[in-house]
Amino acid sequence: MKIPFTGGCMCGNVRYECTAEPIVMGNCHCRDCQRATGTAFAAAMLVPLNAVTVTGDVKYFDVIGDSGSIVGRGFCPNCGSRLFSKPPMPGLMGIMAGSLDEPSEFQPGIDVYTASAQPWDCMNPDLPKFDKMPPSSNV
Ligand SMILES: [Zn+2]
Ligand SMILES: [Zn+2]
């Protein structure tokens, strides 16, 4: 990933820049991500919150995640593009891979919540897979 990297929503009202390397990049196949994205999975990365500068208005919709903690899902209230998430881990934020200006830079290293992956979802067999989250994590 080239640092810093930038991205934004479809209408251009929301823009962001991140000055740190993503901590993890992966595909989440949980039902919440399927509903929120409207498709098979969410391709996203976790980055340090303090490395991201956001301009424009972002609306968050909060849901109770699998861990029992609140997960915020951020989108542009004008065009509806999904951009960010607020995981229940202090100091981190999620960025949706499709919002990147250079989405080909995204390199998923893991598939999570494959227990709810759809039969029409073609996963990369080379990536490590977890039924839910990896045991060391608490998303
Ligand atoms: Zn927008
Ligand atoms: Zn998910």
Explain how this protein is built:
A seven-stranded mixed β-sheet has the order 6-7-8-9-4-3-10. It has one helix and ten strands, in the order βββαβββββββ. With 139 residues, it is mainly beta. The protein has one helix spanning 31-37; strands at 5-8, 15-18, 24-28, 42-48, 52-55, 59-64, 70-75, 82-86, 92-96, 111-112. The chain has one domain (5-119): glutathione-dependent formaldehyde- activating enzyme (gfa) (Alpha-Beta Complex), CATH 3.90.1590.10. The model has no long low-confidence stretch (mean pLDDT 94). The structure holds zinc ion (2 copies). One zinc ion binds at residues 28, 30, 32-33, 42, 113. One zinc ion is lined by residues 28, 30, 32-33, 42, 113.
CATH class: Alpha Beta
What overall geometry do the principal axes of the alpha carbons give? globular
Largest sheet: 7 strands, mixed
Instruction: Kindly identify the CATH topology.
Output: glutathione-dependent formaldehyde- activating enzyme (gfa)
Bound molecules: zinc ion
Which ranges are low-confidence, i.e. pLDDT below 50, for 5 or more consecutive residues? none
CATH superfamily: glutathione-dependent formaldehyde- activating enzyme (gfa)
Order of helices and strands: EEEHEEEEEEE
Question: Which features would summarize this protein structure in a list?
Answer:
seven-stranded mixed sheet, three-stranded antiparallel sheet, glutathione-dependent formaldehyde- activating enzyme (gfa), 5% helix, mainly beta, binds zinc ion
